Amino acid sequence: MNDPAPDADEPDRTPEPSASRDDDAFVTPGYELQRRASLAKDRRDFQALDSAVGSARRAEGLQLLALGRLMERTCGPPAGPPSRDLEFAFRSLRLEVSARYKLSEYAAARLLNIAHLAGTLFRSAVNVLLAGEINSTNLRVVVEEGAPFGLEPSGPLAIKRSRYETAVLDHARIEPSNRLRPIARRLALEFSELNEDARNEEAAARRSVCVSDLPDGMAELRAYLPAAVAYGIRDRIRQIAKSVVLLEAKSGPAVPEKAQDPRPRKRPQVEADVMADLLLRGVTDAGATPDPADGDEPIGGSPGSAAGELRPALGIGVSAHIQVIIPAHTLGERGEARRTDGIPELVGYGPIGSTAARELAGGERVWDAVSVDPDGAVLSVDRYRPSAEIRRLLAARDLHCRAPGCRIRASKCDLDHTKAAVIGGETRTDNLAHLCRGHHTLKHNSPWKVEQQPGGVLKWVSPTGTEHIERPPSRVRFRTARDEEPDAF
């Protein structure tokens, strides 16, 4: 039940083919018979996997229920008062689970806590896991993001928790955990009706910087910052690093000691060096600042200029690009709050407070205000710095790569013609979708098929014939919770 950090960056490591091929490239003498035989075997193996996965999910559900009962007898209900005796009882149980199942005590504690909450407060989610309809990582997301509803098994927040659970399970059945988490976070905020701005302010008051020692002469520097600030810092570092990489590729290392190293610096190394230089000295060791117009070509010298002749990269002219999507129904004519059931979102992170979003919208040069209908479909996008209308609309609709399970943000993706332009595909919103470079090349160089249906829905068909329906994430993110609630409430 261990899952990686769900909202971490997802670098695309897919090797790119040197040239594109069309589907006819797969039809060679004898190939079709071999391919059909192989696909038949693939289908049988996937059927066996489907059966095994279903059994594993039921087993995980039974495991959670058993661990939850152990926690209930050991520690009482989740909302019970803490005591020293209960602490030692929990530590004893944690040690036994750790020793019996060869887990670290940290992993055992996390598993016990999830089981305690799931078995008591999120029983519907456990039942869906037992039925094999969701996996254990998605159940964990449902439970963890349900924290705003507290621990009481009854009362007003418990009723709201039940509504949240019903709504989020619809998404948990079809979304991978990395996409489910921001959806669950948004639904929890909407159904709980808690003051997210107050929560943001309380969390921001705990901002800090710390260093942890690591082996081999290294250490880890961590900063606890508001999400918009952290993403802005990361983006600015990446812009400067991109300029340095381009400069070194054309002119060689600008730092004398680096010139003796035959191994060129990789992008992550350059990003770390840029951050260290900026924090320690306010300048970078090499290069020029990128032109804000395109971010690709260093300025301050010609491509053939020696690195030392370029002006230092002080970071002047390099500003962070953070994209905040604000459903238009959350803003009034002058930017004041008008409705509270639309949650602004920092692209690449997830929901943020409406106050922070309005401040960013007023201060940043690039932001999107998205008009949506009650079902969450994007109607229009207004932007402070206008670009092509189709790109604006599709960026708001797609948010990230539209391949199943991929969450690389739209700004790092290609706009792909679902039906290729060379065979008559039109450049229209109903024939375009964002694909990261890896999935874009896979689409054109493998038997995978993609069809765009009304409303921006993509139907992916695997080589074995399995269909995967990929809905526009904006239909999920921007749909208001109260449109899903029954009238009785």
UniProtKB/TrEMBL annotation:
It comes from Leucobacter aridicollis. Residues 1-27, 284-307, 463-489 are annotated as: Disordered. Residues 62-398 form the DUF222 domain. Residues 1-10 have a biased composition (Acidic residues). InterPro entries: DUF222 (IPR003870), HNH_nuc (IPR003615). Residues 11-24 have a biased composition (Basic and acidic residues). This is DUF222 domain-containing protein.
